[in-house]
């Protein structure tokens, strides 16, 4: 086995194909023995035997020994090969070799899932429901899948008020004289194009600022905004009331007018004695007119029973408009130019103009306030702060939640886990502002956002209990097989896989240890050894290193959980069955797919993992130690450590990718950060971040061999590219080139020729593997996609990147011959 000893060379040692041992195959062995017979030192008769065929008895004897040497050489070579870490081909050989370094191959790690429980919201339901630790939730399997059971890790206090807390999807509507659109709550406002509106600032106070608007369009539930109406308005020409100030945005109200009325006498024949119905100068005895006094009343033609006190009036004449408030409304009758009719007398809050004569004056009346205080929120929900509806009781600080909604960019429903870092309530007690512990990864449509507050973490594995066997005090190192497999392991301290196995002997709990070597003769301990296929065996002591099992009948019992690794990869929304439903719980679901699972270490993992363990020895000092420590942590697939200036000091940034190229979960980031903090010396700073994926797509033309079907060749090319450039196959710092893509395509059977591939960057992966992303035009194509290490950019630290082909992001066209 060869390996680099340069401490600065972080590349993993390459596997040596075979050991450098002397091998004696059958043909070579027989040839050497014939050559020995033909030595000139031998007599002529002996030398003549060297040329005899194998049916000669003497040569047949040599032939038999040549076969023996071939067999011995084969087994010697195999034994030598299995004795070195770099050349061993049997996993059990590697397991025994790395045990000499104190390293045990890590078993599969159970997946984690964030479960959101819903509490019954009825009168008879309890106010608080406790979901106990260990509550099982079973998945609904998809095609070619089996049901999987997850169990909650901690007790959960759930409340109906926290089931799904909606975001405040509205904001205060800013209204001013230049407004061209007004949002109304509801869909039955009764407003039609051509109706008139006023926007009044200051309520019913005299001298309120205002603006007159005309409705030009009415859109009910535009852009799918349920329960909203959008009015398109314009401000007509002319002059508004000069006695009123300019309108401002805060405290403004919108009023619509149900009727347009005429002043009494509007249709009377004009005479020199005709006077306005607004002001009429009385005469003194003797015929001399009195001095005109200001009038605060007007008469409207006809009966207007729906015109109420404290409503608004707008008098409009020759493109001049004035605003008044009705103080009193009295039905009456009047005579004008010999014409009698029903009228409505309206007392106003201020003096009426004398130049507004009935024939040219139109009165907009019967004002109705419209629900225009708020409008749909246009800005997406993003960042760390969320404005939510107030709950009773308030959502507590430190609570784990799941934010769910429709992504603005992709249009798909997304969900992500976060924790409440702070919480405040506004003065009106209607809006609860929640500050999360991190930035949201998605931007959501405000009216689709719901914060699920009854969330608890669960891990994959079903609890079973049964008798393992009977103890025999006369036996040393008694081995007892665990019946069900695979045994569940969860991520523990320093990345170790923590077993869920608990063994009791005669009712007393015995403890699992890593090795019996340091155990005393009375220590009630055992070790667990895992083998291929997920089988596990518990081994007890010999009376010197660990206590022996006491004699008894079926006195060894076990409680453990079954299930780990890739079996726990459950899609979002699949964990919905409750085998034991807690009282008061109506439903459960996993808004986010399960995460942070890891398969058992294989041959390649052990070859790289064991040397890293010897380099770090579970402590973190140098920058390279951060990377080695992280790569040996359960659930981490790849890691890169970089030293970055964060604006004030140099810090170590550790960028992570989950096992098998998956996205690292929040739990994995937190556990690794805590493990590094306990293993590193004090001082300095470091950050554990989720690596950034540089998603890309491929566009290429292929000319296929006529002997192959086109659809088969096209699917084979897409599959080959997906396998080669999938996230699990990529590495930090390794660029993707068009030549590498070209080599993959040319190696596919049935490809006669192809064009030069075009690599195009994608802003984000598709919402699902079935939805192909839109590839940018070829003008944006690149020949090399290079990823960057962790760095400081735009005032914040950015993690390291690695390129990966997005699912379904391959466009393959037919190449012209």
UniProtKB/TrEMBL annotation:
Positions of the UniProt region annotated as Disordered: 1-23, 270-304
Biased composition range(s): Basic and acidic residues: 7-17
Highest taxon listed in the record's lineage: Bacteria
Biased composition (Low complexity): 270-281
Entry protein name: Baseplate assembly protein
């Amino acid at each position: 086995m060869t390996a680099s000893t340069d401490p600065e060379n972080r590349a993993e040692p390459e596997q040596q194909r075979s050991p450098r041992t002397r091998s004696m195959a059958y043909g070579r062995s027989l040839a050497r023995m014939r050559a020995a017979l033909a030595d000139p030192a031998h007599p002529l008769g002996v030398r003549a035997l060297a040329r005899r065929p194998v049916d000669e008895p003497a040569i047949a004897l040599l032939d038999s020994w040549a076969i023996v040497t071939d067999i011995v050489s084969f087994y010697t070579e195999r034994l030598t090969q299995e004795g070195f870490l770099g050349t061993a081909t049997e996993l059990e050989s590697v397991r025994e070799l790395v045990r000499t370094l104190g390293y045990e191959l890590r078993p599969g790690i159970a997946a984690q899932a964030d479960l959101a429980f819903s509490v019954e919201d009825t009168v008879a339901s309890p106010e608080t429901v406790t979901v106990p630790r260990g509550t099982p939730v079973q998945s609904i399997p998809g095609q070619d899948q089996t049901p999987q059971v997850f169990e909650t890790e901690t007790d959960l206090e759930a409340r109906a008020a926290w089931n799904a807390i909606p975001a405040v999807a509205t904001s205060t509507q800013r209204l001013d004289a230049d407004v061209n659109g007004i949002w109304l709550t509801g869909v039955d406002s009764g407003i039609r194009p051509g109706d008139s509106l006023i926007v009044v600032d200051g309520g019913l106070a005299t001298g309120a600022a205002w603006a007159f608007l005309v409705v030009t369009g009415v859109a009910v539930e535009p852009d799918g905004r349920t329960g909203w109406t959008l009015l398109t308005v314009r401000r007509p020409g002319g002059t508004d009331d000069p006695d009123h100030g300019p309108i401002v945005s805060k405290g403004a109200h919108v009023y619509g007018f149900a009727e347009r009325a005429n002043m009494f006498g509007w249709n009377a024949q004009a005479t020199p004695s005709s006077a306005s119905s607004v002001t009429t100068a009385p005469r003194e005895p003797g015929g001399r007119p009195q001095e005109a006094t200001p009038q605060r009343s007007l008469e409207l033609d006809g009966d207007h029973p729906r015109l109420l006190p404290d409503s608004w009036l707008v008098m409009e004449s020759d493109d001049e408009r004035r605003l008044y408030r009705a103080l009193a409304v009295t039905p009456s009758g009047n005579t004008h130019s010999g014409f009698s009719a029903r009228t409505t007398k309206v007392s106003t809050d201020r003096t009426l103009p004398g130049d507004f004569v009935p024939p040219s004056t139109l009165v907009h009346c019967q004002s109705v306030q419209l629900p225009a205080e708020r409008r749909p929120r246009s800005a997406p929900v993003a960042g760390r702060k969320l404005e939510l509806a107030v709950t009773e009781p308030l959502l507590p600080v430190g609570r784990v939640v799941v934010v769910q909604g429709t992504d603005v960019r992709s249009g798909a429903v997304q969900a992500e886990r976060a924790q409440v870092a702070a919480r405040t309530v506004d003065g009106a007690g209607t809006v609860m502002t929640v500050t999360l512990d991190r930035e949201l990864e998605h931007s959501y449509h405000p009216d689709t956002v719901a914060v699920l507050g009854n969330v608890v973490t669960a891990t994959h594995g079903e609890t079973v209990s049964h008798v393992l066997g009977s103890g025999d005090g006369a036996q040393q190192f008694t081995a007892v097989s665990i019946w069900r497999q695979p045994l569940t392991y969860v991520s523990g301290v320093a990345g170790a896989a923590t077993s869920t196995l608990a063994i009791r002997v005669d009712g007393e709990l015995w403890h699992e240890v890593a090795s019996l070597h340091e155990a005393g003769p009375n220590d009630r301990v055992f070790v667990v050894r895992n083998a291929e296929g997920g089988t596990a065996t518990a081994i007890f002591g010999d009376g010197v290193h660990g206590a022996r099992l006491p004699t008894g009948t079926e006195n060894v019992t076990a409680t453990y959980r079954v299930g780990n690794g890739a079996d726990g990869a459950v899609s979002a929304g699949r964990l919905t069955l409750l085998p034991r439903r807690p009282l008061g719980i109506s439903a459960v679901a996993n808004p986010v797919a399960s995460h942070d699972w890891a398969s058992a270490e294989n041959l390649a993992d052990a070859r790289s993992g064991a040397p890293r363990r010897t380099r770090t020895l579970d402590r973190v000092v140098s920058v390279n130690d951060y990377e080695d420590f992280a790569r040996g942590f359960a659930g981490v697939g790849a890691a890169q450590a970089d030293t970055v200036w964060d604006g004030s000091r140099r810090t170590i940034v550790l960028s992570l990718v989950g096992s098998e190229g998956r996205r690292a979960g929040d739990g994995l980031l937190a556990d690794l950060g805590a493990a590094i903090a306990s293993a590193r010396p004090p001082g300095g700073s470091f950050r554990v971040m989720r690596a950034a994926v540089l998603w890309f797509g491929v566009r290429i033309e292929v000319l296929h061999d006529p002997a192959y079907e086109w659809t088969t060749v096209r699917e084979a090319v897409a599959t080959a590219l997906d396998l080669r450039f999938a996230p699990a196959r990529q590495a930090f710092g390794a660029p993707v080139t068009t030549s590498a893509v070209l080599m993959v395509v040319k190696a596919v059977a049935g490809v006669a020729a192809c064009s030069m591939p075009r690599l195009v960057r994608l802003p984000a992966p598709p919402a699902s593997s079935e939805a192909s992303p839109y590839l940018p035009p070829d003008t944006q194509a690149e020949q090399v996609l290079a990823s960057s290490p962790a760095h400081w950019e735009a005032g914040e630290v950015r993690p390291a990147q690695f390129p990966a082909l997005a699912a379904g992001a391959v466009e393959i066209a037919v190449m012209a011959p």
